[in-house]
Design a protein that fits this description.
The structure holds two protein chains of two kinds. Chain A is mainly beta. In chain A, about 0% of the residues lie in helices and about 50% in strands. Chain A contains no helices and eleven strands. In chain A, a hairpin with a 3-residue loop joins strand 4 (about 30-40) and strand 5 (about 40-50). The model of chain A has no long low-confidence stretch (mean pLDDT about 95). By secondary structure, chain B is an all-beta fold. Classes of the chains: A mainly beta, B mainly beta. At the A-B interface, strand 4 and strand 5 of A face strand 4, strand 5, strand 9 and strand 10 of B.
Chain lengths: ~110, ~110
């Protein structure tokens, strides 16, 4: 599981600031995902990617931007952070279609 | 919209007893149903999964059943142990892409 890493582990920012969360995997998995975890809501899909330069929206994409110029990286950007985006963010990857997800260790983001 | 419902939200059992967690899904095209375990402060990890061409799958003390007609699936843990205490999430594939939608989680406590 050390093959997928997220940074930073913790982040505190202010409303209106731009924040980028990083995700890197060493397995060359085709698929990568961003989820946010909030009490009472479980894990909600923000964006996912099937390959480099192919991304698609999930359940809660508003306020977020993703890119995937290289297979191994899938950064998530909050263009103008809001307090409602305070959450734990998990990146995940899977080797192929509808297979096991491997999660990163998460980024705990607080927007003040 | 499409969603996965999970019950109960909390569950307490005596050590050695069985635990059952139930999920329902809305998309009749869903064909992959994984279960994840998340210990406190850790990342979610896959514990078992089932595909729509199978009605039941077992792995030691853990089993999953699927009823496609009723669109529900369940996780069964027998002979529970304190180390089974965690939050459990069900998930279902949705749509035609590689999207997974998660239930809201069940916090299982096994009382020694």
């Amino acid at each position: 599981d050390a093959g997928i890493t997220q940074s930073p582990r913790y982040k505190i920012t202010e409303t209106g600031r731009q924040v980028t969360l990083m995700c890197h995997q060493t397995w060359s998995h085709s698929y990568m995902f961003w989820y946010r975890q909030d009490l009472g809501h479980g894990l909600r899909l923000i964006y996912y990617s099937a390959a480099a330069d192919i991304t698609d929206k999930g359940e809660v994409p508003d306020g977020y931007v993703v890119s995937r110029s290289k297979t191994e990286n899938f950064p998530l950007t909050l263009e103008s952070a809001t307090r409602s985006q305070t959450s734990v963010y998990f990146c995940a990857s899977s080797e192929s279609f509808r297979e096991k997800l491997f999660f990163g260790s998460g980024t705990q983001l607080s927007v003040l | 919209g499409e969603n996965v419902e999970q019950h109960p939200s909390t569950l307490s059992v005596q050590e050695g007893d069985s635990a059952v967690i139930k999920c329902t899904y809305s998309d009749s095209a869903s064909n992959y149903f994984p279960w994840y375990k998340q210990e406190l402060g850790k990342r979610p990890q896959l514990i078992i999964d089932i595909r729509s061409n199978v009605g039941e799958k077992k792995d030691q003390r853990i089993a999953v059943t699927l009823n496609k007609t009723a669109k529900h699936f369940s996780l069964h843990i027998t002979e529970t142990q304190p180390e089974d205490s965690a939050v459990y999430f069900c998930a279902a594939s949705m749509g035609t892409g590689n999207q997974f939608y998660f239930g809201t989680g069940t916090s299982l406590t096994v009382i020694p």
